[in-house]
Every structure is written in structure tokens, then in C-alpha cells.
Amino acid sequence: MREVYILQHSYDIENFEEIKIIGIYSTLLKAEETINRYKDKKRFIDYPIDCFSIDKYKLDADNWTEGFVNWEEANEEV
């Protein structure tokens, strides 16, 4: 089964999570190379490298089979 790698950059600002999808890549290496290109660019350089994340997803597959929680439910679990 074919997989893709989604590269995101996220951080918390004033109790809000800011998330940017940088791109979707065919290999992990391409996503990692993109981090290396972006980490020193304007604004990205102001945040730690661990604000970048790469998630692997299978194509043509259900990726949210367990469902999800809304903000109210998430706050109850804390």
C-alpha cells in the first residue's frame, strides 16, 4: 500500500494552537529535506525544530477509524 508524509509546523500562541501544513511528500526523506530548507526561514527560525512534525498516512485507507473528540471532550480529559 502506498504512503504519503504530511509535514506540519505547529506551536501554541495565546492558548491557541497555530498549525500550518507545509506539504505532502512521497517519501520521508523529502519531508525531512523540506524541514532543513524551512528551519532557518523567517518566522520558522523563531521556534524550536520540534515544532515541525511528519505524519505518515496510507493512501486509500481510513485514517480516523477510532473517531475523534471535540474541544469540550478534550478539556474534560485534562
UniProtKB/TrEMBL annotation:
Pfam families: DUF7336
Stated name of the protein: DUF7336 domain-containing protein
Domain (DUF7336): residue spans on this chain: 4-68
UniProt superkingdom: Bacteria
InterPro entries: DUF7336
